[in-house]
Design brief:
The structure holds two protein chains of two kinds. Chain A is of the alpha/beta class. Chain A is built from nine helices and twelve strands. Chain A has helices at about 40-45, 70-75, 90-95, 110-125, 140-150, 170-185, 195-200, 220-225, 225-235; strands at about 1-10, 15-20, 30-35, 55-60, 60-65, 75-80, 155-160, 190, 205-210, 215-220, 235-245, 250-255. Chain A has a six-stranded mixed β-sheet, with helices on both faces. In chain A, a hairpin with a 2-residue loop joins β1 (about 1-10) and β2. In chain A, α4 crosses α5 (about 140-150). The longest helix of chain A is centred in the C-terminal third of the chain and has 16 residues, at about 170-185. By secondary structure, chain B is mostly helical. Chain B has a single domain (about 80-345), classed as Orthogonal Bundle (ABC transporter involved in vitamin B12 uptake, BtuC). Chain B has 14 helices and no strands. Classes of the chains: A alpha/beta, B mainly alpha. Chains A and B meet through α2, α4 and α5 of A and α1, α9 and α10 of B.
């Protein structure tokens, strides 16, 4: 997927200005930026929910300007933040909804569609949840169900808007390692997130968005620096390298304003 | 990315799931059939199941007429049209209610949320006020009901707000406006002749149903029901919210319009011959959801079965409870509300 000179926003108000980047299979791009910096607006535009004010989006060298929402959904899968729908659907039914874009207008999912959904649940190791009620499982499990749903779309690109924002520490790790696993299965992933550390750990590239403008777009080690994060979030911090048990260097961000400083 | 075919155990799982549905399907088919046969046996001229089979079979088989010819009249001119009307109206209101509840992501929505009933009421009141005949009353009810929903829709797309919220808000506004207009007409109507006629119409009844009424509503009800039935799986996706449904590949704007059109046709046709009948379209989807779950693929058929059975049963009560017929709309509320409370209080997950 390639994005050229994209400007987007609501109505005439521009929120995101002149952004160009491309993503290949196997890459995980992490979008960092303060609240209101335009992360969600950018993702919504890529998904076709908002019309681009300027610029183009290309998928396999085809401009998707005139594509219908089902055409887009066959290539781009979206994973929203886990939420609670008003009706108690079974997990398998929720996952099956990912087949919508592949179905004829009056059709219901076929055996084959059900098998694809089963496979997606297998990949995420949530087959045991298939008959549970979606509204009664935990937030982390729900997020995994939504990822499985996006997988049944059989997309090339996955888009996630803060997939871990309401999850506890353990579930954050579980969800993000699944995301990494999916990228290794030859999908491109674009996700927005709030933790620079997640970007270090799970992404191949980082985009820093500051007031709708692209500040940096590079590998995490180059893009995420003490200065760039200070511009982004307006707080002083230190980036510290530590070695984990496998003797791999891991970077951690520590705010300078906290008591331990 | 393509997901590969799955292996044996998964297929076994799917089959187990399907078997679980089969006994429920059987029950859902038998309940309406049972109440259908029962309804002939209830009332001033009871027709026993044996007689009923004879009378019906005589229509196609050369059977000897060994029974009282009044039974023929009772079956074909009195009971059968009324039974069919009750089942049609019950099924139509229930499926419209279920579809709206899914679309608005709200289990408290009923088919008249967009003003269809208020419109039908105003149409009927106007027709009675101007002394139209029965056909005129029904046509006015039907078309003003369509007009009310059309107004709701056109107002809503001009409101710059969350589109679903705008739809509900304008539905409430149009509904209240039309209800006020009904009151105005009642206020102006002749209190000895027309006012009672309007009031009785608004209470709802199937007492005077003829074959002609049924022939009038069958087409619009089918026109609404068939597309809705075919699209029913997509309603599942709609319950996830409009934006999410759209990124899953659903053309939500088109689906919304189709659902509104279908539900309005069914609701308008129903209330145009039955008058105001409340609570059916709210209670039955809940009952059906408790029986088969929220998946519209099975929920909608269940609503049709349970809705037709329920309204037929309540209409039987309307005929039997007192020496004089009780208006159906009163009974649907009198029975529907406590029944709804019972469902809410006794279910594991509240309305879920």
């Amino acid at each position: 997927m390639e994005i050229r000179n994209l400007c987007c926003g609501y109505g005439r108000r521009s929120i995101v200005k002149d952004i160009s980047f491309s993503i290949d299979k196997g890459e995980v791009i992490c979008l960092l930026g303060a609240n209101g910096s335009g992360k969600t607006t950018l993702l919504k535009t890529i998904l076709g929910l908002l019309k681009p004010q300027k610029g183009e989006i290309f998928l396999d060298n085809t401009n998707i300007k005139k594509w219908s929402c089902s055409q887009i959904a066959r290539v781009i899968g979206y994973i929203p933040q886990a939420h609670e729908p008003p009706f108690p659907f079974q997990v398998r039914d929720v996952v099956l909804m990912g087949r919508t874009a592949h179905l004829a207008p009056f059709a219901s999912p076929s055996k084959r569609d059900e098998e694809i959904a089963e496979k997606a649940m297998e990949i995420l190791s949530i087959t045991h949840l298939r008959e549970r009620v979606y509204t009664e499982i935990s937030g982390g499990e729900r997020q995994l169900v939504l990822i499985a749903r996006a997988l049944t779309q059989e997309p090339q690109i996955l888009i996630m808007d803060e997939p871990t924002s309401s999850l506890d520490f353990g579930n954050q790790v579980k969800v993000l390692s699944q995301v990494q696993h999916l990228a290794k299965m030859n999908m491109g992933v674009v996700m927005s997130c709030h933790f620079p550390e997640h970007a270090f750990l799970y992404s191949t590239k980082v985009m820093l968005l500051d007031k709708g403008e692209m500040l940096h777009f590079d590998i995490p080690e180059k893009a995420i620096t003490e200065e760039s994060l200070k511009t982004l979030y307006g707080v002083d911090l230190e980036i510290v390298s530590v070695n984990n048990q496998k003797n791999r260097e891991v970077k951690v961000c520590i705010p300078s304003h906290s008591l331990i400083a | 990315m393509k997901l590969k075919e799955t292996s044996g155990p998964v297929k076994g799982n799917l089959e187990k799931q399907n078997r679980k549905y089969s006994w429920k399907t059987l029950a859902l088919l038998l309940v309406p059939l049972f109440i259908f046969v029962l309804s002939f046996a209830l009332g001033r001229y009871p027709v026993s199941p044996g007689q009923l089979i004879n009378v019906l079979a005589a229509q196609v088989l050369p059977l000897q007429h060994g029974w009282d010819p009044t039974i023929d009249t009772v079956v074909f001119q009195v009971r059968l049209p009324r039974i069919i009307a009750a089942m049609l109206v019950g099924a139509a209101l229930s499926s419209a209610g279920a579809a709206y509840q899914g679309m608005f992501k709200n289990p408290l929505v009923s088919p008249d949320i967009l003003g269809a009933s208020a419109g039908a009421g105003l149409g009927a009141a106007l027709a009675i006020y101007f002394s139209f005949n029965v056909l005129g009353i029904q046509l006015m009810a039907f078309f003003i009901s369509l007009l009310a929903v059309f107004l709701t829709y056109t107002i809503s797309i001009r409101i710059r707000h969350d589109p679903m919220m705008a739809l509900v808000l304008s539905g409430i506004m149009v509904g209240s406006l039309f209800t006020a207009a009904i009151s105005l007409i009642k206020f102006m109507a002749d209190p000895y002749d027309k006012l009672p006629a309007i009031t009785f119409w608004l209470m709802g009844s199937l007492a005077a149903i003829t074959w002609q009424d049924i022939s009038m509503i069958v087409l619009p009800i089918l026109l609404g029901a068939i597309p809705l039935y075919l699209l029913r799986w997509r309603l599942n996706v709609m319950t996830m919210g409009e934006e999410e449904a759209q990124v899953l590949g659903l053309n939500t704007r088109r689906l919304k319009l189709v659902v509104i059109l279908c539900c309005t046709l069914m609701t308008a046709a129903s209330v145009s011959i039955s008058g105001m009948i409340g609570w059916v379209g709210l209670v039955i989807p809940h009952l059906a959801r408790m029986a088969v779950g929220p998946n519209f693929k099975v929920l909608l058929p269940a609503c049709i079965m349970l809705g037709s059975s329920y309204l037929l049963l309540v209409d039987d009560l309307a005929r039997l409870l007192a020496s004089m017929e009780i208006p159906l709309g009163i009974l649907t509320a009198l029975i529907g509300v406590p029944f709804f409370m019972y469902l809410l209080l006794n279910s594991k997950r509240g309305w879920k």
